[in-house]
Amino acid sequence: MWLAALAGTAFLPGLAQAQIADPTPGQGAPTPTPAPTPDSPQASGSTAAPFANEEPIVADDAFEAQLPKLSGDINAPLEPIQRFEPTVPAPAAGAPTPGAAPTPGALQDSIESFPPPAAESPEFAQPLPPLADFRVEPVAIAGVEDEKVGSVRYTTVLEGLDAVGLSGRFRTLSALEDGDGKAANATMVAARAREDENLAVRLMQSIGYYDGTAISTIEQNPRNSGNVRATITATPGSLYRLGTVRIVSDPTVPAGLIDAELNLNPGDPIQADRVQGAEANVSIRLPQQGYPFLKLGDRDILLDEETHFADYTLPVDLGPRASFGKVVTEGRRQVFDVEHIELLRRYLPGQIYDSRAVDDLRDALIATSLFSTVSVEPIRTGKPGPDGTEIVDLRVRQTAGRPRTLAGELGYSTGQGIRLEGSWTHRNFFPPEGALIASGVIGTQEQGISGTFRRSNAGRRDRTFQVIAAANHSDYAAYESYTTTFSVRWSRDSTPVWQKNWTYFYGAELVGSNEDRYNFNKGARDRGTWLIAAIPGFIGFDASDNLLNPTRGFRIKANVSPETSVRGTARPYARLMLEGTGYFPITRNIVLGGRARVGSIPGIARDDLPPSRRYYAGGGGSVRGFGYQELGPRSPDGRPVGGRSLNEFAIEARYRFGNLGIVPFVDAGQVYEGLYPTGQNLRFGAGIGGRIYTNFGPLRVDIATPIARKPNESKVALYVSIGQAF
Fold first, then answer.
1. HEC-encoded secondary structure of 242-310
2. Is 260 left (phi over 0), alpha (psi -120 to 50) or beta?
3. For the residues 391-399, what does the mean pLDDT come to?
4. Which end of the chain is least crowded, N or C, by CB within 10 Å?
5. Residue 73, Cβ density class (10 Å: 0-12 exposed, 13-18 middle, ≥19 buried)
6. Which of 545, 543, 571 is nearest to 557 (CA)?
7. Tens digits of per-residue pLDDT, 87-104?
8. How many Cβ atoms from other residues are within 10 Å of residue 175's Cβ?
9. How many CB atoms lie within 10 A of CB 316?
C-alpha cells in the first residue's frame, strides 16, 4: 500500500503546471489561476487522455547523454571519481535564457552542482577526552529530578496478590522491598519494578496461575515532590488444575506403590512446590521399600488453555527390587575390616533393601571420627535373592583420617576460679577403635591427671568400655582432698554427631581419698582416709532437638550408686539423683528453659560420709549467684559441710538474635542435712547471661547475684564456659 501511494503521487494531473497562490494577507479568496492556453486540452475541448500531447520532462536522448559511460570490462578497475563530476550542458535551441521567467510547460534543464564542503572545525582534530571523564545521565521520569545520588525515595504498592496468598512471599523476594524505599535515581526504581513484574508472574505460575500477568507503573507521590510510588498490579487469571495423572513405570511390589507415595490427584492445583515435593517423596520412599536404583524421568505437564486443566505424566525407571547382601570395602588407607563394619550395621542379609539402614551405617562410621572420607553405596550383583529380589551388596569406600586429637577447655567462675582442662587422644591406638586418652586439669581449686583406655563399639554397636585411672587434688571451701581412683565402665553415650534417645552407664569404682572435714564430735577440723567402693549406674532419656543447644523437647536423668565407705568400719549407703529439663519455644527467637533436680543419700549419717561424697549446691551448674558449694549447712568455722539431700530449680529465657543471645534467669536451691529435700529455706539467685553461638556450641557468660544476700555470701558471681547451663 505504501508503494502504491508513493507511485500515485508521481502522476497527479497538472502537478508540473498547476500553481496555487497563497491567500493575500488579510483577504479570504485565493488569487485566480491563469486561463488555459490555446494548446491545452481544456481549450480545444479534446477528450484525449491528459498529457497525451505533452513532451516528456527529460528527453530520452538527453537522459542517456548525461549518464557516465561504463567500461565493457566488468573486472576493470574503478574509474576516477573526477569523471563523475556533474556538468552543465549548453542550452538547446529554443531553450529559455537563464534567469528568465519559466514558461508553462517548459523545463529548466540546468543542473546545479553541489557547493564545495565547508572547512572542518578544529575541534574534530582534538584528542578524545578520557573515558573516566564521561558522566552518563540516567533516563528521567517526568517530574522526578535525579540531582544527587540517593535523592529518590519511593514507596511500593502491591495489588492483586493478596487474593492468591502471595503477598508475603513477594515482599520477601521483591527487589523494590529490598531497596528499603531508596534508590540512586528514578531509572533504578524503574529497573526494580520491571524485575518485580517478572517475580510476580513467576510466583503466580508456581501455584498454578499460568495465565497470570503483572504490570508496573511509576508516578510521583505526591505531585512535584520528587518522590515516586511504584505500583505492581498483578492479575492471576484462572487456576490450572491436574486433569489426569499418569505414571509410566513397571509394576511395583506391592502394587500401586508409586501412586501412593506420589499422592497427586486429579483436581489438585498445579503448585510447583507440591509437585516437586511429591516427586521427592517418591525418590526417598521407594529406596526405603526395596528399590535402591530408582530414577525419575522428566515430568511432562500439558496445559489446556480452554479448560484450564493439565495432563501430568511422570516416567519412572524402577530398577530391580533388591535385598541386602554382603559388605565389601575398598580404599587406599582403610580403617576397619569387613568384620567390624558388619558389627555396626542394623540390618541382616536377606532383608528387603532399606536406604535408612544404609544411612544409619554411614552415620555410625562417621561418628567414630576415624575417617577423612567415607561413603556407603549399593552395588548390583545380578544374583537372585528371596521373594524375586536381586541381591545388592554395600560398598564402603574409606580413607583414614588423623587419629590423634588435642583438646582443651577453659572455664572460670568466682567460686571455683580458673579451670583449664586438656587432653591428648589417639582414637585407634588399639585397633579397631581402641583409644588411649591422657588428660590433665590445672585450676585454682583442682589439679589432676588421668589415663583412660576406651573401646568404642565394644562387642556390639554403640557400647563403650572404659578403664580409668586418675589422681586428683581438690581444695574447696567445704573440704580438701587427695584422691586416687580406678574404675571400669560400660556405657551408651550421645555425641554431637550421634545424639541418642536412650543413654546409660554402669560399672565399678574403687576410690582412696584423704580428706579434711569438720569433726562435730571434736569441735575442730581433722583429716581422715576413706576407702570407697561403688557400683554407679545411670540412665537417661533425651527427647531434645540438639545436644549442646536444645530449643525444644525434654530430658530425664537418673543416677543410682550403691556405695560402701570404709574408715575403720564399713558403712553402706546409696547416692540417688533425679533430674529433668525441658525446652519450650515461645517465639521464633525465644526459648524458655527449665530444670529441676532432687537428690538423697539414705543409709548413713551425714558426718560419717566422706566430705567428697556429700551433696552440695551453688555454682555455675547448680544455683547461679552463689559460690561453688556455698549453699547448705555450715560448720562453726563458717565453711560448708554439705548434706544428704538437695533440691535445685532453674528457669531462663533464651533470646537469640543472629549468632548472639541474651539469657535472663532465676535459680533456686538448698542443701539439707536430713534424708529428704523438704523445699524449705530455698535460696534464690538471679542474673543475666550472654551467648555467642558457634559451630561447636554456644559460648556462655553468666553473671548473677544472690537474692536476700546473707553475710559472707558472694555479692556477684561470674561464670564462663562452653554450652548452655542445662
1. EEEEEEECCCCCCCCHHHHHHCCCCCCECCHHHHHHHHHHHHHHCHHHCCCCCEECCCEEEEECCCCEE
2. alpha
3. 96
4. N
5. exposed
6. 543
7. 555 554 444 444 444 444
8. 17
9. 21
